Amino acid sequence: MTQAEGVDAVRERAQQTLQALRGLGSEAEIAAAKALVLQLRNQRDYALMAELAEAVARRDPDSATNRRLHAQCLIETGQVTPAIELLRSLTRRLPKAHPEYAEATGLLGRAHKQIFFDAGDKASASAREALKRAIEAYRGPYERDPAAHTWHGVNLVALLTRARMLGMRVAPDLDPQAIAARVVAALQAMPEDKRDGWFLPMLAEASLGLRDWTVIDENVRRYVASPNAKAFHIASTLRQFTQVWDLENRDDRGRALVDLLRARLLRLEQGEVRLSAEELQRLRAQTATEAGRPEAILGTYGAQTYQWWRTGIERAASVAAIKRRLGNRTGTGFLVRAGDLGREPAEELLLLTNFHVVNKTGVHNGLRPEEAEVVFEAVDAGRAYGVAQIVWSSPVDRHDAALLRLDGPIAGIEPLPIAAALPAVEEGAQVYLIGHPGGRDLAFSFQDNELLDHEGPPLGKPQIPGVVRLHYRAPTEGGSSGSPVFNARLWQVIGLHHLGGKLGVRRLNGKEGTYGANEGIALHSIVAAIKTSRASTDG
Fold first, then answer.
1. CATH code at 511?
2. Claim to verify: residue 357 and residue 328 sit in the same structural domain
3. Which tens digit of pLDDT belongs to each residue from 189-215?
4. Would residue 332 count as lying in a domain?
5. pLDDT tens digits for 379-415?
6. Which range is least confidently modeled, 111-115, 332-336, 380-384, 441-445?
7. Is residue 494, in this structure, part of any structural domain at all?
């Protein structure tokens, strides 16, 4: 996938190739499909990857690379047991000299590693056996050819280190620090033209085994700053740093590295992070004590990325779950300053959500005010506010918005800043959402987050008088309704999300055709409507 091609283009080509393989399917189309399976993996599009890998396997059952990638897809989607069976079958029929043998063997290590980390009791016999098998799977290829199989060595270092941390005597004859030094030396000796997308991730992780923070910081900084970083690579490193190395629970420096990786993942296509209330509260407390530290650790680029991530965490504090009393989450809302909406008292904090989430009569499956409660989970998941009053609303066929006054004072939470204007619609423009998709934990929804179009100036042609809509892509579900839509750079609110994940949405501004899109209402048009209604009331 080229940088300019993007997620949608790869998906479109994959869908076209799938259709071709269901027909006759030429040799060239089968070859193209094999390449697309890898591209889909790199952008973490596992559902489509599985479909295409299956189609390739039916046409070319002897493709070892496709079989291995299919197994990797199974592991990434939680189907570890069938992946192990597929990989065992593959390794039985491949000679050890075959390049896919080492890849498949290492992936068996990945599968057993996942079983170990999924185990609730790491000291259980089954967990210990999984860890032992994972270490054996990585050890074999690495010891046969340490220079060629550096990624096996990196995983060997990580698992041996974790086993020692847990007090487990697994492979006592191996010294993880000595292996780490050999892996780093092999990577640094690698010619430039042989360094692929895994070079920097491996160097970053192998450096952890050396316990030299100068080396660790330098390699992680180079890794996250690389313009060629793929979402799959970053996500894999993030999993290693959190699950295997347990960096979040070690010290501030380790947590800073983890959050830097999270921030980089979120800025790539197909990145998403979901955080529990407890994690958000910890992150808010952590960022409050780390002013100035990331730049010293991570350099200019890293500090900028980390500051961007910290800003997002702070914005999340102002995003609330809207729940049915004594029930589940049904939607999302966010705090705004009354003065920014032309209301008095100017410093009053109000909650903005969708009309179809909360309204006076409960139409559109919404909650009546007396049925609803509001919880700012990033601040205090145990504190629920009631809805004292709907101070303004606009129905679903207009702004689909409701402005709520809560029944108690709101302390320690800042209102979200409202952007002065919508961003320009241009190639690469992005928007971000924070909400509760599917009624689950608070999520940063950054997957496939392209700004498609909007009806704002200078070229917009609103079709509903006084209502400016914007279209974008993001992985939203029920529960995302009422989420703030942010511009990409400054974390300022540009829209109120109200319609998600629909195919056949008519294009904006009189353009022909339909597409798959999410829809929000521009904040400046909601603010204008609130000010107009206030003026008419005062008059």
1. 2.40.10.10
2. yes
3. 999 998 988 898 899 899 999 888 888
4. yes
5. 888 899 999 999 999 999 999 999 999 999 998 899 9
6. 441-445
7. yes
394 and 489 inside one domain? no
Residues 292 and 223 in one domain: yes
> Do residues 448 and 497 both lie within one domain?
yes
How many CA atoms lie within 13 Å of 429's alpha carbon, on the beta-carbon side?
A: 15
**pLDDT tens-place string over residues 306-339:** 677 778 888 999 999 999 998 888 999 999 999 9
For the record, the structure tokens of 431 come out as 């928007």
Whole-prediction pTM:
0.62
Picking from 419, 411, 417, the residue whose alpha carbon sits closest to that of residue 336 is 417
Do 218 and 294 sit in the same domain of this protein? Answer: yes
Give, in order, the Cα–Cα distances in Å from 256 to each of 206, 241, 250, 290, 377: 18, 11, 11, 9, 22
Angle at 420 between CA 524 and CA 314, to 5 degrees: 100
Stated as kind and residue range, the H or E segment containing 535 is helix 523-538
User: Are 326 and 303 within one domain?
Assistant: no
Q: Which residues of 88-124 are buried (b: 16+ CB within 10 A; e: fewer)?
A: eebbeebeeeeebbbbbbbbbbbbbbbbbbeeeeeee
Q: Transcribe 264-305 into DSSP letters.
A: HHHTSTTEEEE--HHHHHHHHHHHHT-TTHHHHHHHHHHHHH
User: How many C-beta atoms lie closer than 10 Å to residue 198's C-beta?
Assistant: 16
Q: Domain span at residue 285?
A: 207-316
CA atoms within 13 A on the CB side of 404: 33
Instruction: Examine the pLDDT at 54 and tell me if it is beyond 80.
Output: yes
Residue 309 shares a structural domain with residue 327: no
Which amino acid is located at 374 in the chain? V
